[in-house]
Structures are given as C-alpha cells and as structure tokens.
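Feature request disguised as a bug report, sorry. It would help if multi-protein outputs had a clear separator. Right now it looks like this:
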Amino acid sequence: MFIWDCHYVIILNTVCVATLPHTYIFVKIFIITYSEKKINRFLNFKLIYRVIMGIFITLEGIDGSGKTTALKLLCSDLAKDGYRVLQTKEPTETLLGKFIRNTVLGTGGDASFMKSMDIKTSALAALFLFSADRTAHVDEIIAKLDSFDIIICDRFIDSTYAYQTANSDDAEGTRDLKEFILTINEFILNRRSFNIARTYLLDLEPKVALSRLSGRVHGFDGFDGRSPDFFNAVREGYLYLSVRHKDRIKIIDASGPSENIVMEILKDLKGLVDEKIASTNE
C-alpha cells in the first residue's frame, strides 16, 4: 500500500510500485515526513531505490577524442540524477593491468620488452595479456552489477580490436588476427553470458585528435606517439566494428564541446534505462 499527501509518505508492507517508465520497490514498513518539495524529489527519482538491475556500457575512441573528459562529466551528471554509477577501465588497476600499462603501453615503465619483438609477435602477446586482464575484469563487473545502476568502462573489447589490428602492413596476417581477436572477445563474454548494453564510440578525425594530444602537458605516452597513419587505421577498425555491431555501437561526433557529447550520450542512455525497466514489468 502506498499513501502520500503534501506532508507524509506512508509505505506499508512490501510493495512494488510501477509508474512507467520507472519502477520502485519498497521492502520495509516505515513512515516518512517530508515537505512538498522533498516529495517532489521522491517523484524525481532521487530518494527511492530504482530497480534497474545493472547496465554495463563502454566508451571507446582514439586517443585525443575527449573520452576521458566526457566520461568524467557523464558520471557526474548521472550521479546528480540519482543513479548509482561505477566507473572502471581497461587495462584494469590490478597487478596484471599495471603490468600491461608498463610493458605494453609504456605509460609507467619500460616498454623495451615488447619493442624487442617483431610486430606480429608483440601484437599477439599484447592480445593475450589484454584478454587475461579482461577475463578477470568481466567476473569482477558481474559481481558488482547488482550494486550499481550503471557501470561504465573506459575502453573494452573494441579497443583491443582497433588498436591491435592497426599495427601491421601484412594484409593476410592482419585479416587472420582480426578474426582471432573477434573470436576471443566473444568467447570471454559468452563464457559468462555477459552483454554490453551500449558502446559509445567518440569519433574524431585523427589529425584533430593528434593536435589535441600535442597540447598535453606530459606529451605522448604509449600509443599516443604513433603516426597519423596508425590512428587512421585505428579509426577504421572502430568504424568497421560500428557496422558489424550496429545495434550495440552508437557513434558520437567528438568534434564538438564535451558538454554536447555527454548530452547526446545521456539522451540515449536514459532511453536504454527506461527500456530495461519497462521490460522488467512485462
């Protein structure tokens, strides 16, 4: 039973109140006294537990696309709207993830080990390292889905494909590597029946991205220091995936202000949330 007027909200027994497109569940018996203003906050979904059951999304894009800034703003806006948000990333912050950053990306240590290999060998070695990190990461994400409304990952499976296949001029070898990466990525997700609700691909011309990177205080790190041709190949890889997975990947024009990017993402994401909540009521 759910009763309210301008001053009281009374919830008796265990009640599920469905007001599409949002659903709420009340478990304990309690009486709350609120002003009309605070009741409006109830109706604005900030003080009532939302039953969303966890949505996992990813942000992708070439270096310099504004992904990091957009992610920060996105998480902030979602939190202000009352969503329980968890931000994660790949490589992860685990020992393995840090090893990848140091030896593969060279952002915190010595990348000479990977540079000593030929391109094909280093690409395959990097793939296995990223995949091992991701396998453990997926298990960690699944364990947290019930505790958060939205989990956002900075880079995921699509980064592995786009970056690792941009390293070689060997057309036949690259074709085989592409298929292998797609297969291993699908295997990692399918083993846990894990799905990505949406991937937002921040698309930007490489020459614009490189001009942004050149203005960074710390200069180039890891993949940042590669040639324009490399970033063109990375972008092509991303765009190929956006066609292959058109229902999952949404392209976002990253040439404009970060606020516009986040606004477009929020509009689509909240539509996903509403769809998921509506589906739980069917």
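(second protein starts here, but nothing in the output says so)
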Amino acid sequence: MLPTSTGGSLHTPSAGPRFRLPSTLNKSSSSSSSAANSTRSFHFHSAGTTPSSSSSSSLDDMKTLLRRLSRYPQMDFEMAGWTLVHVCIAPRRVYRNVYYHKQTKNTWARDDPAVPLLISACLFLAAILWSVLYARYDFLTTLRTIFSMVVIHFFLVGVAISTVLWAASNKFLTHTSHTHATDQHVEWPYAFDVHANAFFPLFLQLYVAQLLLAPVVTRSNWVCLWVGNTLYLSALTQYAYVTYLGYNALPFLIRSELLLFPVAIFFAFYVVSLLGFNIAKTVLGAMFGKVVVVAAGAGTIP
C-alpha cells in the first residue's frame, strides 16, 4: 500500500502508534468501518437467518422450481437418468460434483427439474400397474392411486420433509459464526433435490419390488411377514442414508451424521413389528382395502 501524503508528512495505515492520523481521516476511517459493519450485517440477514427472510426465500425457491418445470426442451434427461441409476448403486458419486456445480452455477441445487419429472413418470406407470392388479380395473380408483403416489407420496410428503430438514440444517447444523453467510446456507431447492434422489431407491423397493412380492408379503405367516417388513426397513434406511449423503456433501454443515438417527428408530420399530405386525398388509389394506391379486390368482387377501 502506498503512503498517504497529508500536509507534507507521510503517514501509512499500518504505521502503529508512532503516527497520529488527522481527525478528518479518523472520521473517514470510522465511517468506513461502520459502513463495512453495516454491510456485513446486511449480508448476514440476507442469508436467511431470520424467520421472515427464511420463509420468503423458501417460497421464492418453490416458485422457481415450479417455473423450471415448464422448460421441457431444456431438460437434460440423460444426466437425470445417470443420476437415478447411480443413486442406487453408488450414491456418493452423485454428490461428488456438488461443490463444482456451486462454483460454476453459483447454486447447490440442480437447475434442471428432469429428475423429479422422471420419478413422477415412473410413479404414474407404477400407479397404473398397482390399480390394474389391485383395484379391479376401477377407473376412479386408478385416478386416486395416481394422485396419491405422484402428488401426495412424492411431492407433498417430499415438500414437508425437505422443508423440515432445510430449516433444521440451517438452524442446527451450521457454524454459529461464519464469514460468508450466504455461502453457508442450505437452499430449499437443494433440500428437495436430496429428497428426490433418496426417493428413487425407495420407489424401486416399495413401488416396484413390493408390486411383484405382494402375493408373498401379504400372506398370514411369519416368514412372509419378515420378508415384507425387511423390505420396508431396507427402503426407509436407504432413504435416510442417501439423505445423509446429500447434506454431508455440503462443506459448511457440521454434525450431519445426526440425520442418520431415524435409522435407529426404523430398526427398533422393525424388531417390534416382527412380533406379529405385517407392515405390507397394513399399508396395502389402507390403500386398496381388501385387494385382489389378479395376476397371481391368489384370491382375496384377508
């Protein structure tokens, strides 16, 4: 830094107590310091640390996500397919490029909603198959099943889970003191991306595998009960694990392993359920009543 000439004498900002700055420069320095503090305060609050700004930010993020759903020609379905395959066989690879995406796009979240659309299409087809096999070809029941699986199971439950984890991670899993608050803030669209990634392995187990195993897992014997309950434990555990990987990939989060705590709850409930509570029969009964396994010719499930 070049020295500053004031009244014929040289002064440097780092000269220490040997030099006394003029009062005008002291006022200017004080004003600059106040402005800097004000700016830092503004950035801190703009990062979503207050409840009101967090709520408005999440609503804006939801609107942005819905707006992007209309950009069908710009979606990269090849990359979305790669994501869905690897989230099942190597989920860590899916989150390996999150940091580079932040550097290039200045956002942690995907700017392409192709993954939710592909999952919605898969759920749509699965709902039709479930209705054909279990709803006796009832058109209204088919529409209800499609609405339940696509809108309620995936989107509404996903929005609820994403919002809870988004708020909890920003409040409890970030450092209390940070220099760049905006860079250490979990984006709501990223939270929904994590839900979508975690939902697909669950979809394959509970919406596809259970479709094929329904004649087995709904029978009234302990071995079939064990198969069905283990299927649910596996699906929910994988959902929790992929969710944990998604938040653990963010470099500014701490204690992200707390997100694995639900696995202990799932396992405890699983052990208790082996005493005689058939999860598959209960869930399918709630969705379809006394379903009829047409393809397997198994008759009415009691």
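Even a blank line would do. Unrelated, but nice: Residues 74-296 form one domain.
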